[in-house]
Design goal:
The protein is an alpha+beta fold. The chain is built from eight helices and nine strands. The protein has helices at residues 2-17, 23-31, 44-51, 104-115, 120-123, 132-144, 265-281, 293-297, and strands spanning 34-41, 55-68, 80-92, 147-159, 162-176, 193-209, 224-236, 247-257, 299-308.
């Protein structure tokens, strides 16, 4: 009975961010407890709307996606989402519509397909159906405790002749208790807070220069090489059924950070810093900036602890 409620819910999230899925084929695999998908394309327009950043997604691919659902212990163990190799390219948003924007309407209609999938089991429960309050509470617990494991994350940002690449060998995100220890958690009175930890291993940042044809002739030494980073996220909610946190506090810890910039990289680094500051202070007008006002005004604070070498 539980599968008929949770499966469409989980598949709806998958279909929201990934193109060309067949819900009717995925549901049976998910009921077995494990779902494996290969060579996937991300819905770029959906990511832009969700993240609400002044950036355009040029491309996004996932080599392998694995989802493990512990059906017999769903109320006490997390759903585990594992991604093996994800490659994303970004650029600064401009006034021209990107190619994938034209597919927005079709993507939206496709994303509804999963939510419209009806399970025969769900319709046959009759008086044994679980109460809506319990179902909603269970869904919230599932989302709050999803464990995300990413192996080989590649982010590439291009701006003019600048190519900024961020490579992460492994990234893991999971729920934590009040002592910041991994644990199955839930938003509860009186605190109404949710804690998550993001552990980043082997973070490498490269800054290279490309020529007029878009190719990098000489690769530079990494600016940051194999850095370890821990991020603690404390989200505060107004009430139990809140879908969005009223305040988010980020704490970053880095035991050691070694940076190096050569004569070629320094001017590019300065340009990127200037661009970030201009975006932060609103000195650059971008299409859709009015949509970002809510994000800018949201109560987000950051604490950073690092030893720079």
């Amino acid at each position: 009975m539980l599968e008929s409620y949770v499966s469409p819910f989980l598949l709806g999230y998958i279909n929201k961010y990934i193109k060309n899925l067949k819900p009717e084929d995925l549901q049976l695999s998910l009921w077995g407890g494990d779902l494996v998908l290969n060579h996937l394309d991300l819905r770029l327009d959906t990511l832009e709307k969700e993240l609400n950043l002044p950036l355009t997604f040029v491309s996004g691919h996932i080599h392998e996606l694995r989802i493990h659902v512990p059906w017999s212990r769903l109320g006490s163990e997390p759903v585990v989402v594992s991604i093996n190799t994800i490659d994303i390219s970004l650029k600064l948003r401009d006034s021209e519509l990107s190619d994938h924007d034209s597919d927005t309407s079709s993507s939206t209609s496709k994303s509804k397909s999963v939510s419209e999938v009806k399970s025969p089991k769900r319709q046959s429960h009759g008086s044994e159906e679980m109460p809506p309050g319990y179902v909603q509470s269970l869904m919230n617990r599932i989302i709050n405790n999803v464990q995300i494991v990413v192996n080989n994350l590649i982010l590439k940002y291009t701006e003019g002749d600048i190519v900024l690449s961020i490579n992460i060998k492994s990234l893991e995100s999971f729920g934590a208790n009040q002592h910041w220890e991994q644990q199955f958690v839930d938003v509860a009175l009186p605190d109404l807070v949710l804690r998550r930890i993001v552990q980043v291993s082997d973070l490498t940042v490269c800054l290279d220069k490309r020529n007029a044809s878009g190719k990098i002739e000489n690769y530079q030494e990494p600016v940051v090489y194999r850095c370890q980073l821990d991020i603690r996220i404390l989200s505060t909610y107004a009430h139990l059924n809140s879908k969005r946190a009223t305040a988010v506090k980020l704490s970053l810890k880095c035991d050691e950070l070694n940076m190096s910039l050569n004569d070629t990289q320094l001017p590019m680094f300065i340009r990127i810093v200037q661009l970030v500051l201009a975006l932060y202070y609103g000195d650059i007008d971008l299409p859709g900036d009015e949509d970002n006002e809510g994000l800018i005004n949201e109560n987000i604070t950051t604490d950073t602890v690092a030893n720079v070498g």
